[in-house]
Amino acid sequence: MSCSAWHQQVNIASRSRVGSAFAPIVLVLLLLYMPAQAGAAPLREGAPELPTPVKIGIKLQQITNVDQRAENFSVGATLMMRWHDPALAYSPDSDPCRCRFKTLKESNFDQLIMEKGRKWPEFTIYNQQGNRFSQNRLFGIFPDGDVLYFERFTTTLQAPDFNFRRYPFDRQQFFIHVDSVYPKDFYVFTDLEGFSEVGARLGQEEWKVQRFDTLVSSVTASTRGATSRFSFRVVAQRHRTYYIFRILLPICIILVVAWVTFFVRDYGRRIDLSNGVLLLFVAFNFTISNDLPRLGYLTFLDTIIFSAFIVTSLVVIINVYLQRIESADRRESAHRLDRYVRWGYPATWLVLVLFLVSVFHWL
């Protein structure tokens, strides 16, 4: 495709009714398509000498839901951008509105941009799932050509960075990635200082926000060319009280009950008690299974539950073995082994827990 033919396609798309609304998107797609063609114009063709800096920031006001199994979360947030376009400057005295600040809705601003033959730094939220519900989308224009974009939105975001290996003592990262639609030759994101923040009441009781930060980088995730990306990151620690009192403490009580059976002299009664403890643990495991994320790897809590189940099963096996030794007229051997097991059981558990803590600490 020749360069003149390509420009003709762009002009046709811009003059059509549908092309008028989507002219910026058509332009970007053609720009990205052309590098693959022999003799095509480079990606920088049509770009200004210097890219326009765009200040951007996000206020996170709500985390409405965290779906651990689907690895996504829903947010309510406000996004603001500020950039300068001299073609949009106006004189408050001669302009029909006679105002020192214009406020336009999206449709009015798009019409103004088309009339001026300009673009604006359109963006996409890279890790967005499904649609984004925008409660408000407004543009503000200052007489000197400075432009403000304000959007209050709610959406669901993918969270592939979730790592539940230390669950329930885990710390997670929540990202909002905003990618520029146009390459870096047109627009470059910079941090809108003093704007980004995390609200004091996020409405999420399971997580405690520790800190947040912002980062501007260059990526090629959304387009072939390098585009500017603004990343808003929140680091949150899971509240542990629920898991300690609802899961870990009951497990400890079950294990103590299993240990107490070693002080019963009647091995037959001991086997009955051990079987009851094992069934109690199985029932408890089914009860809490819905609270655990279904992952392709073991979490810290998974290993604790699995280890407790194995040790409780071993208690039953050991008690059966002791009864068989006693039935074979080897009472002294049974009592001697019983003494070792009685105190070896808690010692083994202590060593096992310390080992698991040390292993998962480095994951």
Task: Characterize the structure shown.
The protein has helices at residues 3-15, 17-33, 106-116, 241-260, 267-288, 300-327, 331-361, and strands spanning 52-67, 72-84, 102-105, 123-125, 128-141, 146-158, 171-183, 187-191, 197-198, 207-219, 227-238. The longest helix is centred in the last third of the chain and has 31 residues, at 331-361. Strands 1, 2, 3, 5, 6, 8 and 9 form a 7-stranded mixed beta sheet that branches. The chain has a 4-stranded antiparallel beta sheet with strand order 4-7-11-10, with no helix packed on it. It has 3 domains: 1-46; 47-238, Acetylcholine Binding Protein, Chain: A (Distorted Sandwich), CATH 2.70.170.10; 241-361, Up-down Bundle (Methane Monooxygenase Hydroxylase, Chain G, domain 1), CATH 1.20.58.390. Helix 4 (241-260) packs antiparallel against helix 5 and helix 4 runs parallel beside helix 6. With 363 residues, it is of the alpha+beta class. The chain contains 7 helices and 11 strands. A hairpin with a 4-residue loop joins strand 5 and strand 6 (146-158).
| Series of secondary-structure elements, N-terminal to C-terminal | HHEEEHEEEEEEEEHHHH
CATH superfamily of the largest domain: Neurotransmitter-gated ion-channel ligand-binding domain
| Structural class assignment | alpha+beta
Kindly, what is the distance between the CA atoms of the first and last residues, rounded to a whole number of angstroms?
53 Å
If you consult CATH, what is the topology of the largest domain?
Acetylcholine Binding Protein, Chain: A
Helix content: 25-40%
The protein's oligomeric status is single chain
- The proportion of residues in beta strands is 25-35%
Q: What's the alpha carbon Rg, rounded to whole Å?
A: 32 Å
Shape assignment: rod-shaped
Q: In CATH, what is the class of the largest domain?
A: Mainly Beta
Question: DSSP helix count?
Answer: 7
Uncertain stretches of 5 or more adjacent residues: 1-43
The CATH architecture of the largest domain can be given as Distorted Sandwich
Number of strands: 11
Reported for the largest beta sheet, the result is: 7 strands, mixed
Overall pLDDT, averaged? 82
- Number of domain units: 3
